[in-house]
């Protein structure tokens, strides 16, 4: 695993994602309290930046919305939770150290290859 610093934890809003570029990947970093997630920053349905949508926490889950068509993606699994998206987005390992967020874009947690 090769973790790269993505941002400071304080930069990640509680209701939106933060767009960061790590190497050749655009990543959306989001949080649910102290838990931090990193997903590929592109909707699998319409190639829209997921970081432009809202982050919603409900029923113990944390999701990010694609603002264009309303698809929601589970931040833990990358799976869409409603239509029109049917394909998952890549999810990446995250490590929070000393107030900074580190993401490993060389490894995916859900086996999805980033675009």
Plain-language structure description:
This is Non-heme iron oxygenase ferredoxin subunit. Residues 4-103 form the Rieske domain. InterPro entries: Rieske_2Fe-2S, Rieske_2Fe-2S_sf. Keywords: 2Fe-2S, Iron, Iron-sulfur, Metal-binding. The two termini are 19 Å apart. The radius of gyration is 13 Å and the shape is globular. The mean pLDDT is 95. It has strands spanning 4-8, 18-22, 25-32, 35-40, 55-58, 61-65, 72-74, 91-92, 94-97, 100-103. With 115 residues, the chain is mostly beta strands. The protein is built from no helices and 10 strands. Helices cover 0% and strands 40% of the residues. It has a 4-stranded antiparallel beta sheet with strand order 2-3-4-8, with no helix packed on it. A 3-stranded antiparallel beta sheet has the order 1-10-9, with no helix packed on it. It has one domain: Rieske Iron-sulfur Protein.
CATH top-level class: Mainly Beta
Instruction: List the quaternary state of the chains.
Output: single chain
Going by helix content, strand content and strand pairing, the class is: mainly beta
SSE order: EEEEEEEEEE
Please, how many helices?
A: 0
Strand runs, count: 10
Tally of structural domains: 1
Strand content: 35-45%
- The separation of the N and C termini measures 19 Å
Task: Indicate the CATH architecture.
Answer: 3-layer Sandwich
Rg result: 13 Å
What share of the residues lie within helices?
under 10%
CATH homology superfamily: Rieske [2Fe-2S] iron-sulphur domain
């Amino acid at each position: 695993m090769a973790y790269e610093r993505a941002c400071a934890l304080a930069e990640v809003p509680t209701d939106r994602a933060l767009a960061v570029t790590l190497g050749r990947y655009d990543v959306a970093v989001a949080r649910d309290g102290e838990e931090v997630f990193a997903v590929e920053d592109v909707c699998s349905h319409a190639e829209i930046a997921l970081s432009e949508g809202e982050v919603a926490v409900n029923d113990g889950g944390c999701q990010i919305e694609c603002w264009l068509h309303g698809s929601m993606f589970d931040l833990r699994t990358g799976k869409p939770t409603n239509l029109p998206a049917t394909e998952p987005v890549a999810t990446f390992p995250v490590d929070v150290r000393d107030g900074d967020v580190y993401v490993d874009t060389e490894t995916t947690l859900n086996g999805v290859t980033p675009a």
